[in-house]
Structures are given as C-alpha cells and as structure tokens.
Design goal:
The protein has 149 residues and is of the alpha/beta class. The protein has helices at residues 2-39, 42-46, 58-69, 81-95, 112-120, 135-148; strands at 49-53, 73-78, 99-103, 125-129. It contains six helices and four strands, in the order ααβαβαβαβα. The chain binds NADP nicotinamide-adenine-dinucleotide phosphate. Pfam families: adh_short.
C-alpha cells in the first residue's frame, strides 16, 4: 500500500514537471512574445523603410498608402517618373513620411538592379512589396548571376 502511494506521488510529480517544462513554460513564452510583438510598430518590428515596386497604381499604390499610414518611410519604384512624383506628393501630404523615388523600367532586364542597389545600399529596408510582374523573376536572375561571379 505504501509503495502504491509512493509510486502515485512520484508519477504525479513527474507528470506535473513534464507539463510545466513542455507545455506551460513554452506556452507562456509564446504568449508573452506575441503580446510584445503586437505592441511594436512596423518600423520597430521590421526597420524604417518599405520598398514598393509597381507603386504608382493598383495594388502597389494601395500598399504604399497603407504602409505610410502605419508610419513606414517608403522607397517607391515604378516606370514613370511623373506618376512617381504625383503619388509621392499625395502620400507625403496625407502622412508626412519620408519618401525616395526610383524610376526604372524592369523590362530592360537585370541591369536596372545596379541603379536600385546604389539607391538602397545605405538604408535599412524592412519590408519589400513586389507589385509589378517583373521584379521577382528579375531578382532571382540577378541573385543567380551575382552568386556565380
Ligand atoms: N489587380 C488584380 O486583381 C491582380 C490579381 C492578381 C495578380 N495581379 C498582379 O499584381 C501585380 C499588380 O497588379 P495591379 O493591378 O496593381 O497593376 P497596375 O495597376 O497595372 O500597376 C502596375 C504597376 O507596375 C508598374 N510597372 C508596370 N510595368 C513596369 C515596368 N516595366 N517597370 C517598372 N514598373 C512597371 C506600373 O508603373 P507605371 O505606371 O509607371 O508603368 C504600376 O505602378 C501585377 O503583376 C498583376 O499581374 C493583379
């Protein structure tokens, strides 16, 4: 009888220890981290700048407006300089964030990345939003060609 009670106590202790180590401590950790993350702004979470391609129309423009409204500074990339300036003025007037513009035509191929890289080198890019139909394909070509050098 005493042995049974002892075994029950040891079993209960082991189960409690396992639950604490494997469920409660990690669970509380995850909960705590997600609460802390939610309190942080996009800038604090990812960095100061968001780079948006295809930023002068449609999805890209909407994306740029939303990110600026959340306090991100923007690098807007598109083909037409006039449209870039117009969108820049609109977003600046609405939000006051800092905005850089890069006018490039992605249909010219990977050479446009020299220009983009020079513009982005000195800034802390936290978010990249690709909203044109060329960028991701070109970016992968660019990465493979630079890796081969
Ligand atoms: N809208 C949809 O329902 C939908 C659905 C599924 C997928 N998509 C895809 O999502 C992407 C964006 O769609 P959207 O409707 O927002 O397009 P959109 O309104 O036509 O806007 C396209 C943007 O990409 C830029 N762009 C186009 N060609 C370019 C080039 N050669 N070099 C640099 N920039 C260029 C345009 O700039 P400029 O005006 O200065 O040329 C513009 O800012 C597209 O790839 C589209 O296929 C859209």
């Amino acid at each position: 009888m005493v042995l049974l009670v002892l075994l029950a106590i040891v079993g209960a202790y082991a189960t409690a220890l396992w639950t604490l180590e494997n469920l409660i401590v990690p669970g509380v950790g995850i909960l705590w981290r997600s609460i802390r993350l939610r309190k942080k702004s996009l800038r604090q979470r990812y960095g100061k700048w968001a780079v948006i391609t295809g930023a002068t129309d449609g999805i890209g423009k909407g994306y740029a407006q939303q990110l600026a409204a959340k306090g991100m500074d923007l690098v807007l990339i598109s083909r037409s300089k006039e449209k870039l300036v117009k969108v820049c003025q609109e977003i600046k007037a609405a939000t006051g964030v800092e905005i850089k513009l890069i006018a490039v035509d992605f249909s010219h191929g990977v050479t446009v990345f020299d220009n983009i890289r020079a513009e982005l080198e000195s800034i802390d890019v936290g978010i990249l939003g690709e909203n044109d139909r060329f960028f991701s394909r070109l970016a992968s070509e660019f990465t493979s060609s630079t890796c081969l050098q």
